[in-house]
Design a protein that fits this description.
This protein has a single domain, classed as NAD(P)-binding Rossmann-like Domain (Rossmann fold), CATH 3.40.50.720. Helices cover 45% and strands 15% of the residues. It contains 8 helices and 7 strands, in the order E-H-E-E-H-E-H-E-H-H-E-H-H-H-E. Strands 3-2-1-4-5-6-7 form a 7-stranded parallel sheet, with helices on both faces.
């Protein structure tokens, strides 16, 4: 019998992250999740703290008895910062989004690569990026799009850098996905108008994104490493 996969998923308290945990567990994986604060069943760590991600890896590794086979970087924020905001606010908005969305993912990916190398048996990293990486985002979200484009570049670098060691990396780029985050956004952007831009006629479900992430974390063939999977109802086809 194949060994049970041990997987660590960030931002698993709700939305896409919660669906990813459910999809992984339904495929037999043993999963440890995370949220911004301590709660039942998840490790708490506020990733806006530059020291948090590295310390979180140690806790996740301990919770999974010293073996992680795959890391899913899902935690993220989608917070606006206006172009005419005072410089201090503008820079603070950029720094916070880049820290949570990109730097924390990089710090965890770094520890994952070091762990996979030490074990000598490979491993997988799945980064939940966004359609915004390719298409850009609203005028209040330059930094969000930049953070997600950064995740895609990071993913490809890991894929190319460590494929020989069977360390695989993938990115998932969801378009609008009906979670708490998207509901607010849809409402603020006038719902139907936004839907008209999606040929499929609806936003994605967290389960659709999760099924792709679970496939990449557990099953995708090694030759797929470096792939970026779009899940956007053909609202951005590249
Ligand atoms: P969500 O807001 O429902 O959940 C976000 C998760 O990240 C939560 O578990 C939360 O605890 C965690 N998180 C947020 N801030 C954190 C912090 N400072 N420290 C630690 N954890 C923190 O979001 P979602 O819609 O499920 O999105 C999940 C991922 O998918 C994000 O990376 C997001 O950018 C990406 N995404 C979402 C959509 C969408 O439309 N929902 C589209 C494209 C990409």
């Amino acid at each position: 019998m194949a060994e049970t996969a041990h997987i660590f998923v960030t931002g698993s308290t709700r939305g896409i992250g919660r669906a990813i945990v459910e999809a992984l567990e339904s495929k037999g994986a043993r999963v440890v999740g995370h949220g911004s604060r301590e709660a039942a069943g998840v490790l708490g760590a506020d990733l806006s703290d530059p020291a948090a991600a590295d310390a979180l890896w140690d806790r996740a590794l301990a919770a999974l008895d010293g073996r992680i086979d795959a890391l899913v970087n899902n935690a993220g924020v989608f917070e606006p910062v206006a172009v005419d905001a005072p410089l201090d606010d503008w820079q603070a908005g950029w720094a916070r989004t880049m820290q949570i969305n990109l730097q924390a993912s990089a710090d965890l990916s770094r520890r994952a690569v070091l762990h996979f190398r030490e074990r000598g048996r490979g491993g997988r990293i799945v980064n939940i990026a966004s359609r915004a990486a390719y298409r850009g985002d609203s005028p209040a979200h330059w930094h969000y799009a930049a953070s997600k484009a950064g995740m895609v570049g990071m993913t490809k670098s890991i894929a190319r850098g460590y494929a020989r060691e069977e360390i695989l990396a993938f990115a998932v780029c969801p378009g609008f996905t009906m979670t708490g985050m998207a509901e607010d956004y849809l409402a603020s952007r006038g719902g139907d108008k936004l839907l008209a831009d999606i040929p499929l006629g609806r936003v994605a479900t967290p389960q659709e994104v999760a099924s792709a992430a679970a496939y990449l974390a557990l099953e995708a063939p090694p030759s797929m490493t470096g792939a970026v999977i779009d899940i956007n109802g053909a609202s951005y086809v590249r």
